[in-house]
Write a structure and sequence with these properties.
- By secondary structure, this protein is an alpha/beta fold.
- It has five helices and five strands; from the N terminus they run βαβαβαββαα.
- The longest helix is centred in the N-terminal third of the chain and has 16 residues.
- The chain is globular and about 40 Å long.
- The termini are far apart.
Length: about 120
């Protein structure tokens, strides 16, 4: 599955209608973001059952602000509408794949006992 841009208007539907959503918060002027982009794209192609999206923090400042994004790139992963991972900084392919495997292996019943699903303002 190709990586697509995510806007504020699409956010709720994307999170609600997909089991796992991987979000790359980035900006065009960000060198580390440009370095991480091919890794993100490659991993998305290798995991067609997972939704990969990018949020341009300059174009979508309300999303970046809502999640307190202070450093880019920042990777955020939702599973069943719950944020299960968030980390700033680019990462190598192997690390991203490892994180995805851990996210897929999560016992979401256990996670949800301690977390609230995402709800838009």
């Amino acid at each position: 599955m190709a990586v697509s841009a995510l806007t504020t208007e699409q956010f709720n539907d994307t999170i609600t209608n997909n089991d796992i959503v991987v979000i790359d918060f980035w900006a065009t002027w960000c060198g580390p973001c440009r370095t991480f982009a091919p890794v993100f794209e490659k991993v998305s192609e290798e995991h067609p059952g997972i939704t990969f999206v990018k949020v341009d923090t300059d174009a979508e400042p309300s999303l970046a602000g809502h999640f307190g994004i202070r450093s880019i790139p920042t990777l955020m992963i939702f599973r069943d509408q719950v944020i299960v991972f968030q980390q700033p900084g680019a990462m190598p392919k192997g690390a991203l794949v490892n994180i995805l495997e851990q996210v897929q292996a999560l016992d979401m019943a256990e996670v949800k006992r301690g977390a609230q699903p995402f709800e838009a303002d």
